[in-house]
Amino acid sequence: TNTQNQFQSKDGPDEKDSLVLLKGNSSHYLEDNKEDLIENFIFENSTILKKNRYSLTFHCKFDFAKYPFGEQSCPIIIHFKIPDKYHLKLVPESIILDEPSFGMFHITQKTIDVVRKKYYDRLGEYFIIELKFAQDISGMILTVYIPITVLNIINQYTNYLTGPGMLEVVLTINATILMTLASLFISTSNSLPQTDYIREIDYWLFVNFIYPFIIITLNMLSYMAQKFGCKNKIIETGLQWFMRYLLPLFYIVVNIIYYKQ
After folding, report:
1. Edge-to-edge strands, sheet with 46-51
2. What is the dihedral of CA 99, 105, 108, 112, to 10 degrees?
3. Which residues have C-beta within 8 Å of that of residue 180, sequence separation ≥ 6?
4. Residue 258 CB partners (closer than 8 Å, separation 6+)
5. Residue 126: how many CB atoms within 10 A of its CB?
6. Kindly report the CA angle at 73 between 71 and 74, in degrees rounded to 5?
């Protein structure tokens, strides 16, 4: 979605709009405001070339569902109402941007085409400009993805601690990491673009946040099964098997699905 705020001819001290008469191998620059020359005279075997540079301010609507992955596309449609009697041909030359990046995004592709078709019941010449943006995620890899993943790997290591008195160690490590993840979860969420919908990174953060809580809960259930002398060893064995093998497998699958996008 694009909202056109400013669209005007730009006449700078060094780059003025030009009106050129091309005939054969020669070119003649015409003075400004010579529209009467164009409309009242016919130049045989010649072409009149009019160059204009325009400054455009626009707004783009981005979809942050897959943030920070993927590209954001920003199509800009400019309509030129040109009567057929003028026999004009619009030729886009180039796109000049003040900055190569906008905030957290940098431009990966820019294209411009001219088409003659009907948009919203209006037939005319249209400039179709498309800009594609992407974010450099190296900063998030170092400050979000690697720290959170390493912390949960440490959480998983505690599932392999066995022996008397290990429950207190497991609970202490996981509780400490849970508080650290809570701090990372809040700071990361506040730094993300604010949206009115849940993004995929929100699901990933939530899974990583509850991971130590799941480990604490499973270890407590295993401890209670041992303390109260559960006759059916299948429950205790099943809990240990789930903590040591199924739980890390679940974590790996979630990360593969998330990073595969």
Report:
1. 26-29, 18-23, 46-51
2. -60
3. 151
4. 200, 203, 204
5. 19
6. 150
Tokens of 101: 């990046």
In degrees and rounded to multiples of 5, residue 20 shows phi and psi of -125, 135
Give per-residue pLDDT as tens, 7-21.
Answer: 333 343 344 445 555
Q: How many residues does this entry show for the chain?
A: 261
Q: Measured between alpha carbons, how far apart are the two ends of the chain, in Å? A: 24
pLDDT tens per residue, range 105-155: 888 888 888 777 665 566 667 778 888 888 888 889 999 999 999 999 999
State yes or no: cis peptide before 248, omega within 30 of 0: no
Match 């093998």 to its residue by tokens.
245
Supply φ then ψ for residue 62, to 5 degrees: -100, 150
